[in-house]
Fold this sequence. Notes:
The complex is a heterodimer of chains A (111) and B (113). Chain A is built from no helices and 12 strands. Chain A has strands spanning 3-6, 11-14, 19-21, 23-26, 32-38, 44-50, 56-59, 62-65, 75-77, 86-93, 100-101, 105-110. The N and C termini of chain A lie far apart (41 Å). In chain B, 0% of the residues lie in helices and 53% in strands. Chain B has no helices and 11 strands. In chain B, strands 2, 4, 5, 6, 9, 10 and 11 form a 7-stranded mixed beta sheet that branches. A 4-stranded antiparallel beta sheet of chain B has the order 1-3-8-7, with no helix packed on it. At the A-B interface, strand 5, strand 6 and strand 11 of A face strand 4, strand 5, strand 9 and strand 10 of B.
Amino acid sequence: GNSVTQMEGPVTLSEEAFLTINCTYTATGYPSLFWYVQYPGEGLQLLLKATKADDKGSNKGFEATYRKETTSFHLEKGSVQVSDSAVYFCALSASWGKLQFGAGTQVVVTP
Amino acid sequence: DSGVTQTPKHLITATGQRVTLRCSPRSGDLSVYWYQQSLDQGLQFLIQYYNGEERAKGNILERFSAQQFPDLHSELNLSSLELGDSALYFCASSSPGGGAEAFFGQGTRLTVV
């Protein structure tokens, strides 16, 4: 079946540091890939998405590239802020829009 | 604000009881999804409805059921509740089309005591 694996957290960074969260997937066919973010006490918000190989999704300084050859969709941000502290979920959608999520990675950014 | 409304925000109930969680999707969205978020299981897909019809089923227990009404709002019914059902239940909606993003509600936090 389909699955998403992302690096375990928590990831603790200083403000302005570079952030990478690794995400790899297993799926048949050509899934769409997503990064969702969950701030404390809130629901999930879409951060970015990519629907085909080599697509790059970007939003709020975050980027991820759909790499079919390595089945990966790593999330990166060049300079994090305290406000980026949250839990980040990698997800795929292979059929009918339902999402398969990774376990989530907590990111803590300190001043 | 995602446009997806879930009620109630918090629910505390006793084991063996039955509860109903409600979700109003974004205007125009025909698909509604239910997810369960717990510490041990993470985010799990439960069930999807599309324009009133069940479209896909995930790890949903037989004690749980859902439906989508003609006005497209959805309800998730949880019965014979157990302590392990304590979790955050999210509803999401999306518009038709592959790759369409899902918009999530704020969730209902269920505590079974």
